[in-house]
Design brief:
Elements: H1 4-26, H2 32-54, H3 62-86
Helix pairs in contact: 1-2
Main location: membrane
Subcellular location: Cell membrane
GO cellular component, one term: plasma membrane
């Protein structure tokens, strides 16, 4: 199990990533497209940190992680299919 130092480092990283999302939209040198793509990348990193450390998935066997990844991919496919059928 991870210690307080690890959780503190993850928390600081999450704060930095949240600040990065704010900076992407507030600095005028970044276009809207760059800000949105950057926000999506930062969100994936934040999700990975939260799932890995705060939900303790980093300590689980790899097969469970692969199964969770497959489930997320299937939800993504269903979302695309639902969006396509609405049009």
């Amino acid at each position: 199990m991870a210690g307080i130092r690890t959780y503190t480092m993850v928390y600081i990283a999450l704060l930095a990533l949240g600040t990065g999302k704010f900076v992407l939209f507030e600095i005028p040198q970044f276009s809207q497209t760059v800000a949105i793509v950057g926000t999506l990348i930062l969100a994936v990193i934040k999700i990975s940190l939260i799932a890995g450390y705060f939900q303790h998935l980093i300590e689980e066997p790899r097969s469970i992680s692969y199964m969770m990844g497959l489930a997320v991919f299937m939800v993504f496919l269903l979302t695309i299919a639902a969006g396509y059928s609405i049009q």
